[in-house]
Amino acid sequence: MSSQILTAFCKPLASLPGLVGVYHFTREGEGVKVLNIWTVIENTDVDLEMKIAAAQAEILTTFGTHPLHFMTIPHSILREHPATIPKEATFIRGDRLEALSKTYTEDPC
Description:
The chain is of the alpha+beta class. The protein has a single domain, classed as 2-Layer Sandwich (Beta Polymerase, domain 2). It has helices at 2-13, 46-62, 75-80, 97-103, and strands at 19-29, 32-41, 68-74, 90-93. Strands 3-2-1-4 form a 4-stranded mixed sheet. Helix 1 packs antiparallel against helix 2 (46-62) and helix 1 packs across helix 4. The longest helix is centred in the middle third of the chain and has 17 residues, at 46-62. The chain starts with a helix and ends in a 6-residue tail after the last helix. The relative contact order is 0.29.
């Protein structure tokens, strides 16, 4: 299920300028595995953030029964605080999202 969610999330984001990439990882939360999807953007950009929010809303509508956590983070915060990202997180560069949206098979959960 997680691979389907990541594929569906990455597809509309693949061609967005200003997108650095996406981190994904799972964490236990109240007895269930929660899929965390953190989107990294180059700079704060309201238009870009609204497109990311639309993709997040679509995922919540489609996969609403799966526990999900989304976050959008400016790249500058990660440069200043690199420990923000958990060690178990997997990073997908922005230029790889299009390929991922077509071929993702690994299930991170």
